[in-house]
Amino acid sequence: MKYIIGLGNIGLEYDKTRHNIGFMALDAFAAAHNAAFVPSKQFATIAKLAINGEQVVLVKPTTYMNDSGKAVRAIIDYYGGDVNTDVMVLVDDMDLPFGKLRFRAKGSAGGHNGLKSIIAHTGSQTFLRLKFGLGHPDHEQQAVIHYVLGKFSRAETEDVNHMLDHSTMAIEEWIQGNGVSELSNKYNG
């Protein structure tokens, strides 16, 4: 079984914001497979599907970003699996140039509270991440918060759609067994 975890915040005020691109990518992947999300008791909404015989669970934590690990831990405990081999986390990254994708097989949270929570709840830093480049605003804390919780501009829409299209293809290739090196060579910008 494979798990695709999209990170984001629940609520209309966060819909389509930069910090929610993990949710947006998961929604794009679900739409490509006609999968619908339903509430689960594991602190998330989930969609289940099968791709080439592989069971796949799409997960959107309902805990808010800073406690995403609670949902990841609960899902893995309930359905089984290994965070190090069966999980891909879709996450925003301000340190990547806007519009770029990057696979990362391990590492620290890099200041991202959603990743910090997953690391804390699973005890692992070696789960796969697909990072979505947001670029970085002014380094003042308020500017950063306003930026990540802001919506994408019309000028950014084409690049966002490009990232979402490529992420859907990349997720499918991972599910089909392509390794991190191959995916990185093909998709990392």
TrEMBL record:
Domain of life per record: Bacteria
Binding site for tRNA: 14, 64, 66, 113
Stabilizes the basic form of H active site to accept a proton (site feature) positions: 92
Enzyme Commission number, as recorded: 3.1.1.29
Protein name: Peptidyl-tRNA hydrolase
Signal peptide: none
Assembly and binders: Monomer.
SUPFAM superfamilies for this protein: Peptidyl-tRNA hydrolase-like
Family: Belongs to the PTH family.
Compartments, record wording: Cytoplasm
GO molecular function: peptidyl-tRNA hydrolase activity
Alphabetical UniProt keywords: Cytoplasm, Hydrolase, RNA-binding, tRNA-binding
